[in-house]
Specification:
Length: 263
């Protein structure tokens, strides 16, 4: 019997880029950082290897073409179904390449109807100011069943939506009824806030998350598992020179039941 929780963690896994370990580690980290009951739902094409307690359902069929599956993460729009398998309440969607380093309770308690990350002014400030707002979809909260227009308008003309917006986060930013952003510092970027500057990264490991951060986003390369590999090989892209195992990432992964790669 499912718990009578009105808080739901959502994630998605399709294809082979992310193994089951990513889902299991995220689930364990959420359990450690959420007070009280919640449900954890992974929409996936393969539930093999998931930990007990993780609920699974098929990824909603949006009629995506093969190209839409490969580029733009358009499958994420499935969470905005008017009825997502009967789940109700407040949902917090979390990408699999996110590191949970603080309490998630405030993410559910924030009063704004739709909350998401600002990848522009928070993560890419310009020399002349804070830059341009750029909504992301790596971690967002909304009330299940309340943003159905996002998916309805997409299904009405998929090709036009993809041609005009390229990636799903731009579409969500344009179609949501309202949008607010997490308080600055709650969700930080590994690449923007923790990676050492070019040159120093050859000698110094990435900084650990500051105590005020609640989530670290690994958007693009590197991914969390890249920082787990033993040895001294580069895990970053030139001219960045990040390399070797990163202790705080290893500690996070193993404490949450993840498996380390073999040398």
């Amino acid at each position: 019997m499912n718990p009578p929780a009105d808080r739901v963690i959502l994630c998605m896994k399709w294809g082979t880029l992310y193994p089951a370990d990513y889902v299991n580690v995220l689930y364990s980290a959420c359990r450690r950082n959420i007070t009280g009951q919640f449900r954890f739902l992974c929409l996936t094409d393969d539930p093999t290897g998931f930990s007990p307690g993780i609920e699974t359902r098929p990824i909603p069929d949006l009629g995506l073409t093969q190209g839409m599956w490969k580029s733009g993460a358009w499958a994420k729009l499935g969470v905005f179904q008017h009825d997502l398998y009967g789940f109700t309440g407040r949902a917090l969607f979390i990408d699999l390449d996110m590191v949970i380093c603080g309490s998630l309770d405030p993410f559910f308690d924030h009063p704004a109807p739709f909350l998401t990350t600002d990848m522009g002014t928070d993560w890419r400030p310009r020399p002349t100011g804070r830059g341009t707002v750029e909504p992301g979809t790596c971690l967002f909260a909304f009330d299940l069943g309340t943003e159905g227009q996002i998916i309805d308008r997409f299904v009405a003309d998929r090709e036009k939506a993809v041609a005009e917006y390229t990636i799903e986060q731009a579409w969500v930013g344009a179609q949501a009824r309202s949008m607010a952003f997490w308080p600055r510092g709650w969700v930080i970027s590994f690449k923007r806030h923790l990676r050492q500057p070019i040159g120093l990264d050859l000698f110094l490991p990435p900084r650990p998350p500051p105590k005020e951060a609640r989530v670290v986003a690994f958007h693009g390369a590197p991914r969390p598992a890249d920082l787990l590999r033993p040895g001294t090989a580069l895990w970053d892209r030139l001219p960045h020179m990040g390399h070797g195992q990163v202790k705080w990432m290893v500690d996070y992964w193993t404490e949450n039941g993840g498996t380390l790669p073999v040398a």
